[in-house]
Amino acid sequence: MSPLVRGLDPVTGDVLEITADATITQIDRRPGPAGEELPYLAPGFIDLQVNGFAGIDVNGPEVTAERIAEITAALARIGVTTWVPTIVTASEEAIRHALRCVAEARASSPQLAHAIPLAHVEGPFLSDQDGPRGVHDAAQIRPIDPEEVARWQQAGPVGIVTLSPHTDDAPAQIARIVGLGVQVAIGHTHATGPQITAAVDAGASLSTHLGNGIFPQLPRHPNPLWTQLAENRLTCGLIADGHHLPAETLEVMLRAKGVDRAFLVSDATELAGKDPGRYQTAVGGTVELTADGRLAYVGTELLAGAASDVAAGLRFVLRSTSLSLPDALALVTRTPGRILGRDTTLRVGAPADLVTLTDDGTIQGVWQHGVEASPA
Question: Where does the record place the Amidohydrolase-related domain (predicted)?
Fold first, then answer.
């Protein structure tokens, strides 16, 4: 069998030749290159927070299992071979409907089940205050309820729940949710430092899009950002679209957390890739997408999710921070893979989810379960 793909190891510069079907069956390594120009070779990218993509919303009454499959194919074309559908604050029935669609999509094929390992529910147990709440529906914000989370699990594969630990009972409720086998992320919060620490003591292990979903103005110190940056037990998601976090903020956050405790997310909405203009969305109502890709709730300074993707986030990190290509790749492969319980090492027996790319992060080729997906 001839090699499926050839490329350079981003760490060593060796030439890798990978033979595969759905999984990697052989890896040949040799020093190189000797007079040949090759792209770099890496595992497929992982995005743990996708609200929608390519004109399709994970949320709302129109979502179906077929539409979830369409998002999977569209993401593969840009290098994202694994993604986590993210369901935002809504009624319990609306959340359960979206989860059922995710479950049906996963059940339709082993490939989809691998590409969509779990679902992330962002809310409804969030801050009820303007600013930290973001554009989440204020009418649907409610107290942390592990019993509701258990009911969600009956509908679909809930693996991550984002909540705000600002109430006295938050640690006990977080412990119950973690006991259900669900990872708890802190986000959209006005919790104090001690409340965040108590949440981590109770089992919270992630931060959702750190630096966003918070008051626009904060005390110099203490504030929730410092607590989460200093807490080594929290692994933090970061939106690297150039709008949610300025380059210097992203640089400092990455220095504080290190690439083993940080990962990139897109927070992409259905408007990712759309033309500039005003749109009516199922989440957030009327939003405006500017020519430079900023997506905001009309009439406010609040961002309404993102209109970018995690592959673009990788490119932003490479051109705007001091990270090397191997370290930047860890933010979209190794660290989110660890959160999912997956080893993203290129090895025999691993899924043939692969990308080739240039040193600036431009995708050259994508293979999902050994099947080539033409880059968008």
Answer: 40-370
Question: Distance (Å, rounded) from C-alpha 266 to C-alpha 222?
Answer: 28
Farthest CA pair distance, the chain:
64
pLDDT at 104 over 60: yes
**Residue 237 burial class via C-beta count within 10 angstroms: exposed 0-12, middle 13-18, buried 19 and up:** buried
Long-range pairs of 250-257 with CB within 8 A, sequence gap ≥ 24: 250/317, 250/320, 250/321, 251/320, 251/321, 251/322, 253/210, 253/211, 253/229, 254/317, 254/321, 254/323, 254/331, 256/229, 256/230, 257/229
* pLDDT digit string, tens, across residues 48-98: 999 999 899 999 899 999 999 999 999 999 999 999 999 999 999 999 999
- Average pLDDT, rounded, for the chain: 94
Enumerate the domain spans of the chain: 44-345
- How far out from the chain centre does Cα 263 lie? 8
Query: Among the ranges 78-82, 219-223, 303-307, which has the highest mean pLDDT value?
Result: 78-82
CATH architecture of the domain 44-345 equals Alpha-Beta Barrel (3.20)
Comparing CA positions, the residue from 116, 28, 121, 47 lying closest to residue 314 is 47
Kindly compute the dihedral angle of the four CA atoms of residues 185, 189, 192, 194, in this order, to the nearest 10 degrees: -10
Alpha helices for the chain (secondary structure H): 65-76, 92-108, 110-115, 146-155, 170-179, 193-201, 224-230, 247-257, 310-320, 325-330, 334-339
Distances (CA, A) of 166 to 128, 171, 347: 10, 9, 43
Distance between CA atoms of 359 and 353, rounded to whole angstroms?
19
Q: What is the pLDDT of residues 173-207, one digit of tens each?
A: 999 999 999 999 999 999 999 999 999 999 999 99
